[in-house]
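[Automated response] Your request has been received and processed.

Submitted sequence:
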Amino acid sequence: MEKYFHAPITKEEAESLNSGDYVYLTGTIYTARDAAHKRMDEALKEGKPLPFEIEGQMIYYMGPSPAREGRPIGSAGPTTASRMDKYTPLLLDLGLGAMIGKGKRSQEVIDAIVRNKAVYFAAVGGAGALLSKCIVSCEVIAYEDLGTEAIHKLEVKDFPVIVVIDSKGKNLYEDKIR
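Generated structure:
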């Protein structure tokens, strides 16, 4: 089933999604990869705020390539989500609404998704050039010294994703294997 959502996402919206749904996102999402997640974790341990209000937000596990002339961003494909698994349960407990990446997640992350009524989306790996066409604007908002791993604020329009793990814990990857 195809659905259209405006980012950020509410818990009620996340609960309405089912594993396997095709979703088109419009609105604001943030990028963060390994190094940015480590910095956010360190900030939280030091009692400092995160660089953006996390409630309901979506983090896209992506490090953009340089923008081509006339475009806000270069290739924008997903990276492997499991590399962020050690940081994700805490972010979900703090209100993170969704993540976008590729690949499987740990049981700890799946439990946190269910506990917090969140969702894990997959973007199509290898389609970064096509995905970048759905990105209207891109700006670095934190950790600029990390280069492509800095946190970017993206404005997206009809950005295509698939629900992999829904708020009930149903997992598209596991279901398809069975």
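Summary generated for your ticket: The CA atoms of residues 55 and 91 lie 9 Å apart. The chain is about 25% helix and 30% strand.
If you did not submit this request, please reply to this message.
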